[in-house]
Write a structure and sequence with these properties.
This protein folds into 4 domains: 137 residues, Periplasmic binding protein-like II (D-Maltodextrin-Binding Protein, domain 2, 3-Layer(aba) Sandwich), CATH 3.40.190; 97 residues, Periplasmic binding protein-like II (D-Maltodextrin-Binding Protein, domain 2, 3-Layer(aba) Sandwich), CATH 3.40.190; 114 residues, Sandwich (Immunoglobulin-like); 124 residues, Lipocalin (Beta Barrel). It contains 11 helices and 30 strands. The chain has an 8-stranded antiparallel β-sheet with strand order 27-26-25-24-23-30-29-28, covered by helices on one side. Strands 10-9-11-8-12 form a 5-stranded mixed β-sheet, sandwiched between helices. A hairpin with a 4-residue loop joins β24 and β25. The N terminus is likely disordered.
């Protein structure tokens, strides 16, 4: 029974399995068919792409042009010390071939063009720091620069010009070997510095110390006229302008042709493309040739045609930067004028002839380096030589961190002649490299100015950003005397009239002719002044007779002329530390030190000043 039932159960199980199999088969078949279809579709997709290559990853379009359209302003950096490409015209507006061209491009693009003046060697840093959208400054396209920036199409092909003195006896130069043994001046960081280094220094035609690099080409031209150089190499048009000096002559050209273009940030493809299109339109219409004729003085038949623009390439991913990382970058921008505001060279404050005043600016450290007292502001050029107005290098006091603002003042003396004067000042770092935005002091000297249009503020405005604000350069206060000890030192600029040249001298000697040394005391216990070459600052304490000068700081700039100026500066700074007493008699200030003579302490005048 059990066996029979077992056989029945087995038979029933077998029947049940067969029935379930019949029900399951259609579902499995459908599932397998679906899987097969997916495999075929996937395989076909793979095969299709294997024939065409992998589909490229979509690249986001850069927004460099869109940002400018939104702002309505194209920010342009240039170096306005290189006529006829870029310079300040008689109305103190940046003008020249480059400035006119970029304004034409801006007009075509429907945006305002804002041109700012920077040190030539730091123009590239303005793009990196986001201070400018483009750079146009007779900038040659080189492999090194192309590693850092993208360039527009070539807008001008430039020739070089070689200047010499007319009385030098130097003949026409047609090859580099003819410059062997010559002292040669170039603009620092220009393509001509690189060319002279490679073609003359590295080939031993001249020694390294015969190559002189200047922050501005006009300084090189001045040294050539003063017989400190044998040759100066620069672009042909600036060289031709220099021939207005009859002592100079052009002795060579076209040894080193350069292609000029507009620099934009790496990867700013949309901006580069719209600039190229506007540039192409202007070239096709003959407008670029008109500007060349107007500013560079070349006839159309003498213009070297720029190379044909290469076809536009579809944007690709920006390659990773290949430049060697640097520790930090130096940059500076002007925040505002603190006094004697010239309204961007449109309104000149009035001063009297020979009037002493202090000009102040608020500047901002927009780089990544920290400034200290080895950084300084210095005069670099003016509309006339007198525009320096006796201004001396002014050191940063304390520490200025990146993104921090700082107030700086320079002591000036207005020229005696009635005229307008514009001085341009730039920041210098520890290595005396110039950087940042040029800042100006502009005044008009009138014989009877009446009430000046801008009066220096009695106390510098304190920077508001960051808690650790550096100490500002103090300004003499106009407040009346309170009768406190030392008040007789205030409200005056004390000009050095005599100095103890040697410790064993009996009498004081006048300062070196052509030098101007002075001190200005403030009622906050600080003083400023200049040493004939550098500015200085420090602190003082007095009881009305005893006087101690401490924390004396001066930058390390070096002046070559007049002879002995640096030795005089060193002696002046040393004697300031020796001062023990002072006395004022009939507007004459004497500094006194007590010295040992035959075992007795004797008071000895070591310096004298007059108001």
């Amino acid at each position: 029974m059990y066996e029979e039932n077992e056989e029945v159960y087995e038979e029933d199980d077998e029947n049940i399995t067969k029935e379930e199999g019949k029900k399951t088969f259609p579902l499995l078949a459908i599932l397998l068919i679906l899987i097969l279809c997916l495999v075929m579709v996937g395989g076909g997709f793979w095969f299709f792409n294997s024939q065409k290559g992998e589909s490229p990853t979509p690249i986001a379009q850069d927004d460099s042009w869109a940002k400018i359209q939104t702002a309505g302003v194209l920010r342009v950096a240039t170096s306005a010390d290189y006529p006829p490409f870029s310079y300040y015209n008689d109305n103190y507006i940046v003008d020249g071939f480059d400035a006119a061209l970029i304004r034409e491009i801006g007009s075509r693009l429907g945006v305002e063009v804002e041109i700012s003046d920077y040190a030539f060697e730091k123009l590239g840093a303005t793009i990196i720091a986001g201070q400018s959208d483009t750079v146009i400054a007779a900038l040659s396209v080189t492999d090194a620069r192309e590693a850092d920036f993208d360039f527009s199409n070539i807008y001008y092909v430039s020739q070089d010009g070689i200047l010499a003195r007319a009385d030098s006896g130097i003949g026409q130069i047609t090859e580099p070997s003819q410059m062997a043994g010559k002292k040669i001046g170039v603009q620092e960081f220009s393509v001509y510095q690189t060319w002279v280094q490679e073609e003359l220094v590295n080939t031993n035609l001249i020694s390294q110390d015969q190559l002189f690099a200047y922050s501005e080409s006009e300084h090189a031209i001045n040294d050539l006229a003063l017989k400190r150089l044998d040759l100066v190499i620069l672009d042909l048009q600036p060289a031709t302008l220099a021939l207005s000096n009859p002592e100079l002559m052009l002795v060579g050209q076209n040894l080193n042709q350069q292609k000029l273009a507009i620099a934009v940030p790496n990867g700013a493809d949309t901006l580069r493309e719209v600039i190229n299109q506007a540039l192409l339109d202007l070239q096709n219409e003959g407008r670029v040739d008109q500007l060349v004729e107007q500013y560079l003085g070349l006839k159309p038949e003498d213009i070297i045609p720029p190379p044909t623009a290469e076809p536009t390439v579809e944007p690709t991913e920006t390659p990773a930067a290949t430049e060697t990382p640097i520790a930090c970058t130096n940059e500076m921008e002007l925040v505002k004028d603190l006094n004697y505001d010239d309204k961007d060279l449109t309104e000149f404050p009035i001063v009297a002839p020979a009037e002493a005043f202090q000009k102040g600016w608020r500047i901002k450290n927009t780089g990544t380096c920290t400034w200290d007292d080895t950084y300084y502001l210095n005069f670099v050029r003016g509309n006339v030589p007198e525009a320096q107005m006796d201004g001396q290098p002014t050191a940063i006091e304390g520490v200025v961190e990146p993104n921090q603002e700082y107030d700086v003042y320079v002591a000036l003396v207005a020229p005696e002649d009635v005229a307008q004067y514009v001085g341009y000042w730039q920041m210098h770092n520890t290595d005396e490299e110039v950087f940042g935005e040029n800042i100006t002091v502009a005044v008009e000297v009138l014989a009877d100015p009446g009430d000046p249009t801008a009066t220096p503020e009695g106390t510098p405005v304190v920077a508001t950003e960051t808690p650790s604000v550096p100490v500002e350069t103090p300004i003499p206060t106009d407040e009346p005397s309170t009768g406190e000890p030392g008040d007789d030192l205030l409200d005056a600029t004390w000009v050095l009239g005599g100095i103890l040249a040697k410790s064993d001298d009996e009498n004081l000697s006048p300062p070196i002719s052509g030098t101007h040394l002075e001190l200005i005391f403030a009622d906050d216990g600080s003083f400023t002044g200049n040493t004939g070459c550098n500015t200085l600052s420090g602190k003082y304490t007095t009881d009305g007779t005893a006087l101690e000068l401490s924390d004396i700081v001066a930058p390390k700039a070096t002046c070559a002329e007049p002879a002995g100026i640096m030795e005089q500066e060193a002696n002046f700074l040393s004697l300031l530390e020796d001062v023990e007493e002072y006395k004022i008699d009939l507007n004459m200030l004497s500094f006194i030190d007590f010295v040992d003579e035959n075992g007795e302490e004797v008071a000895k005048d070591i310096m004298s000043f007059s108001k």
